[in-house]
Amino acid sequence: MVEILTSKMKNDTTRMFYNDIQANDYYVQVSSITVGDAERQSAVNAQYSINQFLENTLFGKKVEGTDTKFMVKYYPWQKDAVYEQYDDTIDMEGKRFYSVVGPNDNDTGDYRVFKCLANNNGGKSIAPPNWNPYTTGQVYRTADGYVWKFLYFIETSQFEAYNAVGYIPLIGSNFVINPDPNADANNVVYGSEISDIFVSNPVDNAGYKSLNGYLTAAPGNDGTLTLRANDINQIANYYNNMSIYCTNSDGTSRLYKINSYLFESGTGYGKAKVEGTPLTDGVSNIASFKILPTCIIEGDGTGAVAIPNVVNGNISSLVILEAGSGYTNVIGKIVDPLFDFDPEDPNSIDVRVALRPVLSPLGGHGYNLIDELHCRHILLYGYITETDNNQIGRNGTYSHIGMVKNPEFISASANSANTPTVFDNRIAITTDNIAYAVEGDAVQQLNVDNEIIFTATVHAVDETSNTVYLSSYMGPFANKANNDISLDTTLAIVNSTGQRMLINTPTANNIIESDYVQRTGQVYFMEDFVPIARTFMSREEYKLVLEF
Asked: Between residues 384 and 151, which one has the greater pLDDT?
């Protein structure tokens, strides 16, 4: 028995988390957790580790909604690489079915994302698609036999800001976060386009006729085309039920079905009467043409049109002229030519071609990139600016980073627009006994019974302002009334050698406590690493890529 957790569920879970970030306050919080003699402590998915992380928070930076990005795997275009062609019968998740053409390989100076619709039967990609605003349907056919569909682009500045190791953001003018169809009736899309039509027997099929030539006169009012070609057949109605694809010198093309055909022996030209109005359609008197077997696409959608590529009687692929829409079930077939094709004859070498239409993702390629590119990752981006650095500790080390939802602040309730962009979680104390303060020293307070009621670490000392900054001060002690810490402002702070530092009076003017309400917020992510030292020049960039 096979159980499948579909990509749609994973993608929608990613969407829900993205929406949750927009509706709530998320912070990247930095913590310094050590045990023993400054020994690094690993993050663990357990309550003790979560408590330790929160209690040792040094500072935090708010993650803005605009700096939250959907992320997908980064597959840069590479010469001689083989890309997976899109197939609606295969789970494409984890496969390299799209590529990113960067500034070194395109003329636009940015990053263009193209989806592989056909890979020339598993051939190597030799040349990248080069974006052009005038390309019909933004479908590119390269000389190596690949077919690419342009999806979206990333400006160089956006790529540099938001790319993470192995991942790129879904951003740009071609990217829209499709809303929930249940919440937006106008966004409901039924069915798919025809992405491609695969030939199931590309080597074995045989016996199909084709003809290339030129028109010698303007189309008649009755839809008659005058044909000139070296190998034009002289049998009446020989090309009946076949298709003729006419192309003007400016590249515009039209497809028609041939209803009747006659050969004029006096001129050596053929006369094909077609369904439709080629004269009104603008088919010129010198247009080129191809006569090909007719492809029929039948299903519950409408509008799909395709023509076969015929080489020496063999059909190896088809070209989609119109992708159509609304398909959920579809078949394709090539109409048997009326003449010189008899695959039922045991003495014939003719073999019918077998076709398998491929449906695009719902709504067509490029409609819903989150689903189409199997997006399961979210980037939370934070950056410590020079201004931020002046508000937090500019020295010391930290060894943990995490993501916290809705931490509370004294100056603003959770989810308030007034929540700070950055916060310093240290306690700042002004003391005339600054000489007794040493960075990294463990300090404490003792009550009248000589019991420890408060512990902390000296994180920084500013001798110019007689200020001592304390961190890691959330010990197993009872908090003071109407406060979330156990610091007693009436008692001295004692260093590791027993020297006492008195808080200057009035103490209310000489203590600055953190705006962060201690231990609040839901920890969604933690990571430990080799301790990072901060300086006044520090400008950290945080990129957290979460997988769902």
From this structure: 151
Region 229-234: mean pLDDT is: 95
What's the whole-number mean pLDDT along residues 498-517?
94
Check if the beta carbon of residue 223 is closer than 8 Å to that of residue 273.
yes
Residue pair 164/545 in contact by the 8 Å Cβ criterion: yes
Per DSSP, what are the bridge partners of residue 442? Answer: 457
How confident is the model at residue 41, as a pLDDT? 75
Q: How far is CA 422 from the centre of its chain?
A: 28
Please provide the distance, in angstroms rounded to a whole number, between the alpha carbons at the two ends of the chain.
24
In 3D, which of 101, 170, 194, 103 has the Cα closest to residue 142? 101
Region at 540 (left for phi over 0; alpha for psi -120 to 50; beta for the rest): beta
* Helix locations, 129-259, DSSP H: 156-162
Using DSSP's 3-state secondary structure scheme, residue 400 falls into strand
- Indicate the SS3 state at residue 53: helix
For the segment 97-115, the average pLDDT, to the nearest whole number, is 93
- 3-class secondary-structure state, position 290: strand
Amino acid found at 522: Q
How far apart, in whole angstroms, are the C-alpha atoms of residue 368 and residue 360?
A: 11
pTM for this model (two decimals): 0.84
Q: Give one word for 313, left, alpha or beta, with left for phi > 0 and alpha for psi -120 to 50.
A: left
Question: Where do the H-state alpha helices sit in 300-432?
Answer: 369-372, 386-389
**Cα(173)–Cα(131) distance, integer angstroms:** 15
Q: Which pLDDT score, from 0 to 100, does residue 142 have? A: 95
3-state secondary structure of 12: helix
Q: Per-residue pLDDT for 439 more than 80?
A: yes
Structural contact between residues 357 and 194, judged by C-beta atoms closer than 8 angstroms: yes
Beta bridge partners of 444: 455, 494
Q: Which of 333, 322, 325 is nearest to 361 (CA)?
A: 325
C-beta atoms surrounding 213 within 10 Å: 18
Question: Which of 150-164, 240-254, 481-495 ranks highest by mean pLDDT?
Answer: 240-254
**Domain chopping of the chain, boundaries:** 23-68+380-422+520-547, 75-162+171-187+365-372, 196-359, 426-512
- Backbone region of residue 492 per phi and psi (left: phi > 0; alpha: psi in -120 to 50; beta: other values): beta
Give residue-wise pLDDT tens across range 441-496: 999 999 999 999 999 999 989 999 999 999 999 888 888 888 889 999 999 999 99
Backbone angles phi and psi of 95, in degrees to 5: -100, 150
- Spatial separation of the C-alpha atoms in residues 465 and 309, rounded to whole Å: 82
DSSP characters over 473-530: ---SSPPPTTSSS---TTS-EE-TTS-EEPPPSSGGGSEE--SB-TT-SEEEEEEEEE
Among 80, 110, 112, 82, CA closest to 97? 82
Phi, psi of 62 (to 5 degrees): -70, 140
